[in-house]
């Protein structure tokens, strides 16, 4: 896989493929590399952001503004199964690295373009980041408590929605290629992807003609559902079925609510939310969070504490599933990383490699994949075409002619 992407939407997708066994060659600009290399905080001089999205990839640093740099990229693309990019529409075509150009040299190539809005959008040439996609998708309008200001999701889902759907498209195109022998141009827009993930929210509008309103942690059509205050904190309760609602009413000592016509069915509870929730809050406010977590589990009611990121990462579930691994960086020492969640026959991804320094793998890739000699690499580095970290003793003028 030849990965021209940067920031988040593309790098997350290529990292998942690396977890699944793909050889990912990440193309980076000469001086600063992927922009996220400069985002604090850092371990040594390596950014947390870059570490989070670029494990198990090879970094090849090349000047794509030079003819020789473009030639190197095309030579690698001719050998690749997948090319991934997330520039604005038209950028790769202007570089001579668009789908049509690379397909002519490699008809089996699966070429994936992640954009903010797609080439046919009135927003097509505008820059797009996670928060822009979230705002235009409608998700920010409901991600808040009633009466509060719109808020973005804590997760960068605007970017990651593009990542998810690009993975679906790439894997489907690879599967098709086994039958046809031909590649595809997979195109995914972040905004389209996030709108596709609205789920029942879009259908509420189509069915009722009314736009969904913010309900905070509550659910727009299921009651009770959400965070409920206890004597010392909050507990999540989720009564998605009538059985769970009955269990919950018994759990809080209010079994009579089950037969109350105001609360006996989904629609009735929704219409009478304002009457039911104060009853629940009054009962749950009498006891601690720990008390309710134990009691809710005893009555088989879906529940959870609200954990911080640190607490979530250190919880027993994460340890039991081996979701955190430690990799050794040759200069920076041990790094903890979150592993991919996919299991095959009960086994997760192979152990990860630490994220590469900028250009760390340039020489290895060009020698191993394209057969470049050391003399060619030295010449290219001296001319500012690549960054290869060659030994200084080797960097002597190359005689030609």
UniProtKB/TrEMBL annotation:
It holds the Pfam family CoA_transf_3. SUPFAM superfamilies: CoA-transferase family III (CaiB/BaiF). Keywords: Transferase. It comes from the Bacteria. GO terms for molecular function: transferase activity. Coiled coil: none annotated. PANTHER family: SUCCINATE--HYDROXYMETHYLGLUTARATE COA-TRANSFERASE (PTHR48207:SF3). This is CoA transferase.
